[in-house]
Amino acid sequence: MSEIKPNLHVAVAYRLYTKDSDGKRELVEEATKEQPFQFVSGLGMTLDDFEGQIVNLQKDAEFDFELTPEQAYGEYEQERVITVPRTTFEIDGRLDKQYIYKGAIVPLQNADGQRFNGLITEIGETEVVVDLNHPLAGKSLIFVGEMVDIREATKEEITATLKMITGEGGCGCGCEDCEGCGHDHEHGDHCGCGHCHA
Q1: CATH of domain 78-131
Q2: How much is the pLDDT for 169?
Q3: Cα separation of 185 and 26, whole Å?
Q4: In 32-114, beta strands by DSSP E
């Protein structure tokens, strides 16, 4: 992996594919030239190996590379599937079925204040099963795309990114709640930031 030069403002268009053990590809995410994935390098906003592959590219350069599960989101771990009391998700003794249902991704927080997302896989009478694995855990990732723009980040961009990382300013991906990149996360759009969805 190339050394990651910090404080670069990077904008990339790409298609992200997963690859199963049979070599079959499945498109799971896309960032277009019109709505590229943007980030500031060296601040931990993206996968290290993803950054290492692209930060030394020039504008308009094309890329096509694969990350192993170890380089991406790790192997799938059964121990990260947990059972929690149903009351954890109840308000006044009832589930809010608009947000709590099988297949829903819910924000959680541990005793140390660390935030993460979980996927509800089962809702029982007294317990709820939550999968804390990243949805792409255990999968090889293939990124195919091109560099839309790369330049030194401004002080304002670095400051805004640091605020986002510390929880002061939205998820930082540019979604509707942040900086208006146009991704509609509530209706299935994703931008690859790793913050908007588990």
Answers
A1: 2.40.10.330
A2: 54
A3: 20
A4: 37-40, 62-67, 81-85, 90-91, 94-95, 105-109
